[in-house]
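Is this the right way to post structure tokens for a design question? Let me know if I should format differently. Anyway, here goes:
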């Protein structure tokens, strides 16, 4: 399965201040787009030039903002050439170039929504993100990467100096390739605009829909916890993830340390079992203080004691290499730390959401996100796909993708 983590391996992201992550076709949504699912009629039924690609339909149901205040951006990587690219309003995939930067230093990659009704554009095969901004454009900048190739600096809503910091925006992530379409909504970095996705193919799948009043409930839920409350930016502009809160100095860098200490104390004398789907790895804390695992008699790379930042980012000591061995173990541990099930349950992963986030020290940010989605799924941290809890859908023969900006 392609998860968010494997999906994003093909998406180089240059975030400002953070280490790493038009054609004459007429108004969008007013004509016909041809794709794998056949023609897709726009709201007026007027003919328009055929655009190849997977039909992507955007629907504005915010109830607070008109279509003419919303702009979409489709950016990412061309899977054939490896070039960082963007999608034009006619569905053409074009490589980014330094010359795209205007006089203010930013590139105009926006696709305005149709004046009314839905907006449909052909989605080419690529891996990337579909951003949405409201009232103001997002400020993408093309820079030269370490090899001198054009690369995008993506908005970083958790960095106060980012030029898009004051812009109301959010995104979904996707890979569309010969293998199919794989996509998710995400709160791994931040939450701002409630987005829901519907994927049509062999089946019709939806995820990301918030409960009634969900956006208000999310902000209220974060504000109710004194430690997490500072993660709210502006007048409910967005909530940033706690890992980024550490970077910004508004979240305690030792928050998870007591829980990590409890885990390390327990598994000095008790064995921890991790079922990765490819076998069961058994581990204990060794004399050197590392969590050493073995599977089928073979030793795995030991895991050092993680910091709070490691837990929240599922990185550092909990980084998951794409090796099919240590990586899956680290992913399960990262999920168990964030859900605060690791200390008390020696057989991982746990799969009952009713038991997640129960101890005092837990990822309240992720807890609140899950509590306010209709299907209970969200991407509250990078390994939230463990036990199928992520807002993620896939289809090997997709015919259409829909993204809805839902009620504020």
């Amino acid at each position: 399965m392609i998860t968010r983590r494997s999906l994003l391996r093909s998406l180089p992201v240059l975030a400002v201040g953070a280490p790493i992550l038009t054609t004459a076709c007429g108004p969008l949504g007013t004509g016909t787009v041809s794709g794998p699912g056949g023609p897709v009629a726009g709201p007026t039924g007027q003919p328009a030039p055929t655009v190849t690609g997977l039909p992507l339909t955007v629907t504005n149901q915010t109830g607070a903002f008109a279509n003419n205040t919303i702009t979409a951006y489709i950016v990412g990587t061309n899977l054939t050439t490896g070039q960082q690219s963007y999608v034009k309003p006619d569905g053409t995939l074009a490589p980014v170039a330094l010359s795209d930067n205007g006089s203010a230093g930013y590139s105009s990659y926006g696709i305005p929504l149709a004046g009314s009704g839905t907006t449909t554009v052909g989605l080419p095969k690529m891996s990337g993100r579909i951003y949405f901004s409201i009232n103001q454009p997002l400020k993408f900048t093309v820079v030269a990467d370490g090899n001198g190739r054009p690369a995008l600096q993506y908005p970083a809503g958790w960095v106060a100096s980012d030029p898009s910091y004051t812009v109301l925006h959010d995104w979904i992530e996707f890979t569309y390739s010969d293998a199919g379409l794989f996509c998710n909504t995400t709160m791994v970095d931040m939450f701002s605009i409630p987005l829901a996705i519907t994927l049509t193919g062999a089946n019709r799948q939806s995820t990301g829909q918030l409960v009634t009043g969900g956006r208000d409930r999310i902000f209220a839920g974060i504000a109710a916890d004194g430690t997490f409350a500072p993660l709210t930016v502006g007048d409910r502009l967005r909530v940033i993830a706690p890992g980024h809160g550490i970077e910004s100095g508004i979240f305690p860098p030792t928050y998870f340390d007591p829980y990590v200490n409890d885990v390390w104390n327990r598994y000095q004398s008790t064995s921890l079992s991790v079922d990765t789907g490819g076998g069961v790895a058994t581990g204990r804390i060794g004399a050197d203080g590392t969590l050493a695992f073995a599977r089928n008699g073979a030793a795995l790379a030991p895991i050092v004691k993680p910091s709070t930042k490691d837990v929240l980012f599922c990185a550092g000591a909990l980084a998951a290499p794409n090796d099919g061995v240590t990586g899956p173990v680290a992913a399960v541990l990262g999920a168990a730390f964030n859900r605060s099930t690791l200390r008390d349950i020696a057989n991982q992963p746990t799969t009952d959401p009713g038991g997640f986030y129960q101890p005092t020290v837990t990822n309240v940010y992720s807890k609140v996100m899950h509590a306010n989605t209709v299907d209970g799924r969200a991407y509250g941290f990078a390994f939230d796909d463990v036990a199928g809890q992520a807002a993620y859908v896939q289809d090997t023969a997709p015919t259409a993708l829909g993204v809805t900006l839902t009620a504020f």
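Format looks fine. Someone answered above. Worth noting: The helical segments are 4-8, 214-223, 242-248, 257-266, 308-313, 326-338, 364-371. DSSP finds seven helices and 26 strands in the chain.
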